[in-house]
């Protein structure tokens, strides 16, 4: 599962640092604040490729996929799509074939076993070098029948966990190797060779405070290593207010 991400770097670094050559340079000067605990339902930076011009753009899309054919908003809209089913499930298959995108992040949070059968401990996951990386995702356009507003949404694809993440969770987000960004954003309808767990060696994880459990908390201290005396939590939104 992937339910919280960090987008703390500037739009310029998140965009140009991932794919380069972005078409919308005004976006790179955006004053949208950084997010240290980004959650579903929020608007996050997403990299897309124009199917005709081939240009890349960095845009704000809402986390929680609503297919264009939906009459009403799903309740709740899916935030993840399993790699094993993304090409076949009606909810995801058209977006997977035609509208793949990359979510640039500085890291993400996952919850693993804590102290006791019912407790959950949050962990931060990032690259050892501290650089942004790209999550494979799919996006959709949906028109709200009540307001007529067009809403762009996305879902992050997940794979089985690699050896690092498996210690805390059975799933992980699809992390793309930089050499595969072009193929992922390209016209190939089913790049299934990219739907694989990311290698362990470049990655690291560490336990963090229960404060990350609440989306009300959104500050740089959330990703700091857990200090002695901090307790384990129950899961997202079940910790400190």
What this model shows, in words?
The longest helix is centred in the first third of the chain and has 6 residues, at 11-16. The chain has one domain: SOS response associated peptidase-like (hypothetical protein yedk fold). The strands form 2 sheets. Strands 3, 4, 5, 6, 9, 10, 11 and 12 form an 8-stranded mixed beta sheet that branches. It has helices spanning 11-16, 93-98, 181-185, and strands at residues 4-7, 35-38, 43-49, 56-63, 80-82, 100-105, 107-114, 116-127, 133-143, 150-160, 171-173, 175-176, 203-207. It has 3 helices and 13 strands, in the order βαββββαβββββββαβ. The model is unreliable at 237-241 (pLDDT under 50). The two termini are 23 Å apart. It is mainly beta. Helices cover 7% and strands 35% of the residues.
How are the secondary structure elements laid out?
Layout lengths: L3 E4 L3 H6 L18 E4 L4 E7 L6 E8 L16 E3 L10 H6 L1 E6 L1 E8 L1 E12 L5 E11 L6 E11 L10 E3 L1 E2 L4 H5 L17 E5 L34
Parallel strand pairs: 4-10, 5-10
Antiparallel strand pairs: 1-2, 1-7, 3-4, 6-9, 7-8, 8-13, 9-10, 9-12, 10-11
């Amino acid at each position: 599962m992937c339910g919280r991400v960090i987008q703390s770097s500037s739009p310029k670094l998140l965009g140009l640092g991932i794919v380069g050559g972005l078409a919308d340079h005004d976006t790179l000067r955006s004053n949208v604040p950084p997010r240290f605990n980004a959650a579903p339902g929020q608007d996050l930076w997403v990299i897309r490729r124009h199917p005709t011009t081939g240009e890349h753009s960095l845009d704000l899309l809402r986390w929680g996929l609503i297919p264009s054919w939906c009459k009403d908003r799903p309740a709740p809209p899916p935030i993840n799509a399993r790699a094993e089913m993304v090409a076949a499930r009606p909810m995801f298959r058209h977006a997977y074939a035609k509208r793949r995108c990359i979510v640039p992040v500085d890291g993400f949070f996952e919850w693993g076993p804590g102290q006791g059968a019912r407790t959950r401990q949050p962990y931060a996951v990032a690259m050892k070098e501290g650089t942004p990386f790209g999550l494979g995702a799919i996006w959709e356009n949906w028109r709200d029948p009540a307001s007529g507003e067009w809403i762009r949404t996305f879902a992050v694809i997940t794979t089985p966990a690699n050896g690092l993440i498996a210690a805390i969770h059975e799933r992980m987000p699809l992390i793309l190797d930089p050499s595969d960004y072009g193929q992922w954003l390209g016209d190939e309808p089913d790049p299934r060779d990219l739907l694989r767990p990311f290698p362990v060696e470049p990655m690291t994880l560490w336990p963090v405070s229960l404060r990350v459990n609440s989306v009300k908390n959104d500050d740089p201290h959330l990703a700091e290593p857990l200090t002695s005396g901090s307790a384990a939590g129950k899961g997202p939104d079940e910790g400190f207010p």
